[in-house]
Fold:
Amino acid sequence: MKLERLLSIIILLLNRRLVQAKELAERFEVSVRTIYRDIEVINGAGIPIVTYQGTNGGIGLMEGYRLDHNVLTNDELADIVTALRSISTSYGNEHQLRLLEKIHSVVPPAYSEDFQHKTNSVLIDYSPWDGNERLRPKLQLLKEAVDKCLIARFIYSNAEGEITYRTVEPYMLILKGRQWYLQAYCLEKEQFRLFKLKRMKELEIAAGRTFIRRELPMQERDTGQNPCEPSRVTEIVLRFHADSRHLAEEWFGIEGLLPVEDGSWQVRKAYPEDDWLYRFILGLGHHAEVLEPPHLRDIIASRAEQVAKIYSRAKST
Structure:
């Protein structure tokens, strides 16, 4: 554990100019005295660490010092290549390709075959089946806007079909559920918002119009959390016919299925109730039936009738 802590401190100091001893102690759950002992050990190993006193003081590497040896192991480099190749399936650019070439160039020849095997053992493909060529120009423009802090403007259509003109300060591009989003501060709404790239049109970057990046509110930082209020989340129960078990397993996993005496399978799951949920259930077709709650069952039945009427009219004409 001590060796891991020493290496972690070195890497942290390589990436940051100054770090408070108290911060290091809290990060590694040790005392401040232990941190200063660690600093002595690192100094003894030939890595010059300086302690600066005062209000803006802290612990840092001697000015101009750089490690000559490779910080990353071959296995760690292989993990980075795997991650880059996976990201490139949905968001690739020349910088990533050049970085991949650089990493391959520093791998020792004796390890080359093993390295190729490790980097080709896993690939996480984020791209949709129909590709995302239409999104690439938007991604490139917005990436430039994020990097250079440039104002972006576009026409946006939300989930309810309302069309608005937005001027935003781009903060971050997010890939979630195979969909690209832009997290940005909206100047019209005066708050951070998530915008789906597929709902944008007439995107343009205001050349020369820059902004100072705002601090992202704490509640906006965890994009893995569902932004919906608990009151809007509905627990649903679906029944899948016996011959549709494969479809239920694909969506909910084997562990999520409950067997019923008649041979069918039930799934209990909580979702935000919105138009996406209605479309998702309708997309299951005749394989699934809503059992609970009653109001959701009525909504799905009503929408299914509307679809049936469209095809009935088409058949009669």
